[in-house]
Amino acid sequence: MEKLRATSNLRRSLKSLLNRRLSSGSDFTHFNQKRSFQTSFNWIRDYKSVGEVNAVQYRYFSSVSTLVQRNPSFSTLNSDDISYFKGLLGEKNVIQDEDRLETVNTDWMHKYKGSSKLLLQPRSTEEVSQILRYCNSRCLAVVPQAGNTGLVGGSVPVFDEVIVNVGSMNNIISFDKVSGILVCEAGCILENLISFLDNQGFVMPLDLGAKGSCQIGGNVSTNAGGLRLVRYGSLHGNVLGLEAVLANGDVLDMLGTLRKDNTGYDLKHLFIGSEGSLGIVTKVSILTPPKLSSVNLAFLACKDYSSCQKLLVEAKRKLGEILSAIEFLDDQAMVLVLHHLDGVRNPLPTSMHNFYVLIETIGSDDSFDREKLEAFLLSSMEGGLISDGVLAQDINQLSSFWRIREGVPEALMKAGAVYKYDLSLPVEKMYNLVNDMRVRLGNLAKVVGYGHLGDGNLHLNISAPQYDDAILEQIEPYVYEWTYKHRGSISAEHGLGLMKANKIYYSKTPETVQIMASIKTLLDPNGILNPYKVLPHSINP
Amino acid sequence: MKIMVAVKRVVDYAVKIRVKPDKSGVETQNVKMSMNPFCEIALEEALRIKEAGLAKEVVAVSMGLANCVDTLRTSLAMGADRGIHVEAARELIPLTVAKILKKLVGVENPGLLILGKQAIDDDCNQTGQMIAGLLGWPQGTFASKVVLDKEKQVVTVDREVDGGLETLCLDLPAVITTDLRLNQPRYATLPNIMKAKSKPIKKYTPEELNVEIKSDLEVVQVTEPPKRKAGVILSSVDELIDKLRNEAHVI
């Protein structure tokens, strides 16, 4: 029953997309347009006739995009394959044990579960290369996996793909203390890199709540954003080079450590953000900024969203070069965090405020930064932008304030079912979506909004005790259409993975997607790398 | 009644400490400094007593170089009414701090003197006890609970001792040093930070107070504890026995 309903959802959303595209006219070449959607429609008809089969993998929460069939051109594992891998990697690194497979088959949110029978743990680029060469020749599908902290189902198998986990490749290869250029293997955990650099007087240019588990290879492959993007920019700017293994086993050495190198097409950018669908990243060379001594953090309360927005503008102007992070969370998020997380203390206990903003500054002169920050906070308070706030007095207080913002995803997980959306929207309009969703959902679910105010990135989360189609219907495709109308991105930093593979047209034109498909075919003709993800199923081999 | 709280500026508790290459001390340049956590707890307790209506004023005292004023500003931002800064050109040992405090007590006449049990940079745990001795006041150290009875002019202190908890009843004026479980210090709110800017900080020098700064102690060397050696994975029981006998000499 639910499957058919999901089908009609699919048809309805595609139809609305199709109608809108056709009617808006000018941008799109209708012929290409019709053809790609024609294919989708045929697929639906075929699906209805196929009916109940083991080929259709049904997901827990029945999102439209997750109705997928296993590609019959992929082979299945046999004992010869296992022997080969054991010979190549050694018994210890070829895992078929069910308990261990259980964890690597499931994503962090426990929303996506694959049925892979094999986990491989290569220890070197050469081993990765041999694995892929073999899988390519056998047409075995592969899922590259690092920390498995992704939020769109991109890091776990959909069916029985072989999982290649780079976690054992965790060496730091070199670090140049003068330039701050770090070269390391893809399996290095972000937090370990941060500690290592701390001893050298440097910091990683990215920081996210998942740092204790996520690995740099995964961060690079998903172009992770995080908390400090407003200060250090995106990974496209900070990654100076990388080494990747292509589907056929070829090793692409682009591991440059040069700040400037304009020789030919800069291919590394293709891999950054490709979510493992074009190659497996095995080494990364990244530019790290020096660690500055003065860090200050203010936890502020605002009465409405427009104050938050004006605060952002003022902060960028008055704090200028010392501003390093500006985040926001709404009262719903705060309530969840205080309720579900241990050892968390409300910095502003006297009353519940509608919005909370965290502003962090990093600079080299403590008294100067403090003065600047206090002057800015004073004038904002006098101007009515801030209704209350606290300033961290030591590192302990700093960590506690950050725990509140970084702990929201965890609190949401503990609260039950979560529908998670990551959208880039114009800052002025960002919160309107949260309000609209509240109206749409009424009592069905709680709508929580938080995110990177400085980057115009909203993390819209809908929390309910259980997954329920009635809720999903109200959310999708409304959220995506809303985003499309405002020329936003349906995935600011989380990527497309499995969850949004079929939604790419809300943010990219069909021509663009067509070229992406061509590049995919060029680099991975058999389509063995992370299949069913990133690109729409209608054009993904 | 006035409460005097002594606060110390130390290397932030969360910083990874590094020893200076010349082994003369710990690296303090470019390192985050904050108020000693136990001093924060002491200040918080004083503020709570004042908010309960049992004291009129809380005075924060700090001694050392000019940057002590940062710590005093934090105290004022948390809610202290006045600050006192005793300027000193170098690190003061607990006995000197106690002597200076004695002079300040003579000037301010507080009914209660609250300090942190120890500073996290020297871990001396001496100042509170010394000042009580110099003043001849009763002392309740390692306090995990403080209850003031204004009428009877006594303070009941639960102390954390090795055997458990000990409850003492002290006549005022008294000295209390605070332990970790006494309270959770408040955050410095913006309105209070702004108010703190106009609160007075009075400066003294040790000479004005007739205290001689001399140190009976000399730091000879500061070294890191020996690094923990990596473990060795052995391949057989025989190898284990061999190592236990011939390397560790335990069998």
From TrEMBL, chain A:
Cofactors required: FAD
GO CC annotation, single: mitochondrion
Keywords assigned: FAD, Flavoprotein, Oxidoreductase
Gene3D superfamilies named in the record: 3.30.465.10, 3.30.70.2190, 3.30.70.2740, Uridine Diphospho-n-acetylenolpyruvylglucosamine Reductase, domain 2, Vanillyl-alcohol Oxidase, Chain A, domain 4
One MF annotation (Gene Ontology) recorded for this entry: (R)-2-hydroxyglutarate dehydrogenase activity
Domain FAD-binding PCMH-type, residue spans: 112-291
Superkingdom in the source lineage: Eukaryota
Listed EC numbers: 1.1.99.39
Pfam family, one: FAD-oxidase_C
Record has tRNA-binding as a keyword: no
Keyword Oxidoreductase: yes
Catalytic reactions on record: (R)-2-hydroxyglutarate + A = 2-oxoglutarate + AH2
SUPFAM superfamilies linked: FAD-binding/transporter-associated domain-like, FAD-linked oxidases, C-terminal domain
Family the UniProt entry places it in: Belongs to the FAD-binding oxidoreductase/transferase type 4 family.
Stated name of the protein: D-2-hydroxyglutarate dehydrogenase
Gene source species: Theobroma cacao
Automatic annotation (TrEMBL), chain B:
Protein name (record): Electron transfer flavoprotein subunit beta
Entry keywords, A to Z: Electron transport, Mitochondrion, Transport
Source taxonomy: Eukaryota, Viridiplantae, Streptophyta, Embryophyta, Tracheophyta
SUPFAM superfamilies to which the protein is assigned, alphabetical: Adenine nucleotide alpha hydrolases-like
A Pfam match: ETF
Locations listed in the record: Mitochondrion matrix
GO (cellular component) term, any one: mitochondrial matrix
Broad class of where this protein is predominantly found: mitochondrion
CDD domains named in the record: ETF_beta (cd01714)
